[in-house]
UniProtKB/TrEMBL annotation:
Name this polypeptide is given: MFS transporter
InterPro entries, alphabetized: MFS, MFS_dom, MFS_trans_sf
Record has ATP-binding as a keyword: no
Domain Major facilitator superfamily (MFS) profile, chain residue ranges per copy: 27-437
Topological category with respect to the lipid bilayer: Multi-pass membrane protein
Pfam families: MFS_1
Keyword terms of this UniProt record: Membrane, Transmembrane, Transmembrane helix, Transport
Subcellular location: Membrane
Organism listed in the record: Methylobacterium radiodurans
Domain of life: Bacteria
Length: 451
């Protein structure tokens, strides 16, 4: 029987597997590359700081303040950005975000002191706002529920990979100091921002907005995928009311589940961003050279990159979300606490590896949990709101770590807020699980995940 006459029902899992493999291979590698560059541009200032802070006269507290302002802008512009993406289409909006943040990243190389550094970080946050939740929402347009934990994990592996590959690259770019009349940290910021502009232009050609536009699928595959997603959406929307614009934002912000999920994710978001920003300085404090710092910084992120994919696959196979999210948070919190007990570089490196292993493992299961918990009518604003509210905590802790490090002289003490936040998140996951169990949501969700 030819491809054009085989029905999804007759072909069973073979037809579905072939279709989803095509979608995954077409979209995920490109989106991972985009997010890789996004995260490199967000956290490369952590390596730039090894020489930039001295050149610009930035104190630890001033550097932390600038890092925090990134998230202030991110928070202010994220939900409007996600709503705009629904209005103008994913392809155009994702491209716009990438081109804008690339240009701002290039301009960041020419800051001259604490004030311009803070302004540049604020503008970069505003430019990048909406990319991550926009892509998470975009993936729901293409992947049924049963695939989302592994797909989100595959997409988010770009975060640890950005530090794994970016660490030695950033350390190497610092050696360009003096070339062309620029400092090494300026070359670092410029050369790592240019790919964002190029990828933004490429997105216009490579990213279809919806399955109906997917010329890489056959007509039958497009019809099956569209019907599958529409069926899931209609089933989930049954009995749900719809709101738009400001009403949608109001509905999201008055949904208690959004706030619970935001607090849970705040621990993971804050850990990802603050360690990516501060870990080069933590390791440098053991008397390492810039190159040694770059090479050792790779290790925790490399381990985390592999494990988050393994954990995401496990979460989808089991269909279980609560323990898959809570256990990694518990590991992260405990490992942070144990850093207080050692002054050894190698033990610290092991503990930070465990921190990041747990922290990145929760990404896929958490966002699968979030999309299954929120009403579909609130998906666009809800995903953005969770990420936005979580980044309120990220911005505050980024600034707080700078102040605590300057006041105490100790990075383990400065990291204690992350220990508390991830521990709180772990407890809230179990609380949410009990509530879902009482209302029968877990059984329904698990059945879908196993389908």
């Amino acid at each position: 029987m030819s491809r054009t006459t085989v029905s999804p029902t007759e072909a069973g899992g073979t037809f579905e597997s072939r279709t989803m493999r095509k979608v995954g291979l077409r979209l995920i590698p490109f989106l991972v590359l985009c997010y890789f560059i996004a995260y490199v541009d967000r956290v490369n200032v952590g390596f730039a700081a090894l020489t930039m802070n001295r050149d610009l006269g930035l104190s630890t507290a001033a550097f932390g303040l600038g890092g925090g302002l990134f998230f202030v802008a991110y928070v202010l512009f994220e939900v409007p950005s996600n709503l705009a993406m629904e209005r103008v289409g994913a392809r155009i909006w994702i491209a716009r975000i990438m081109i804008t943040w690339g240009l701002v990243g290039i301009g960041s190389a020419f800051v001259t002191g604490p004030v311009s550094f803070s302004v540049a970080r604020f503008l970069l946050g505003a430019a990048e706002a909406g990319f991550f939740p926009g892509v998470i929402l975009y993936l729901t347009y293409w992947f049924p529920k049963a695939y989302r934990a592994r797909i989100v994990a595959m997409f988010m592996v770009a975060i640890p990979l950005s530090s794994f590959f970016g660490s030695p690259l950033s350390a190497a770019l610092l050696t360009l100091d003096g070339s062309g009349g620029l400092r090494g940290w300026q070359w670092l910021l410029i050369l790592e921002a240019v790919p964002a502009v190029l990828l933004g232009l490429a997105a216009l050609a490579l990213l279809p907005s919806r399955p109906a536009e997917a010329t890489f699928l056959t007509a039958e595959e497009r019809a099956w995928l569209t019907d599958r997603l529409d069926t899931e959406r209609r089933a989930a929307e049954a009995g749900q009311s719809h709101a738009h614009g400001l009403a949608a934002v109001r509905a999201v912000l008055t949904n208690g589940k959004v706030w619970i999920l935001a607090v849970i994710y705040a621990g993971s978001s804050a850990t990802s961003n603050t360690l990516s920003l501060w870990m080069p300085q933590i390791l440098k404090g053991f008397g390492l050279s810039n190159l040694e710092t770059g090479l050792l910084n790779m290790i925790p992120f490399g381990i985390a990159s592999v494990f988050m994919i393994v954990w995401g696959l496990r979460a989808d196979r089991s269909g279980e979300r609560i323990w898959s999210t809570a256990l990694p948070l518990a590991l992260t919190s405990l490992s942070f606490a144990l850093t207080l007990l050692t002054g050894s570089l190698w033990i610290t490196l092991v503990l930070l590896s465990l921190v990041l292993l747990g922290n990145y493992a929760i990404k896929g299961p958490f966002f699968a949990l979030a999309t299954e918990t929120l009403p579909p009518a609130q998906a666009a604003a809800g995903i953005a709101a969770i990420n936005t509210l979580a980044h309120l905590g990220t911005g505050a802790i980024t600034s707080l770590i700078g102040v605590l490090r300057e006041q105490t002289g100790s990075f383990p003490l400065a990291l204690l807020p992350l220990c508390a936040l991830t521990g709180t998140g772990c407890a809230l996951v179990f609380w949410l699980g009990r509530r879902r169990s009482r209302t029968g949501e877990v059984g329904a969700t698990s059945a879908v995940a196993r389908a």
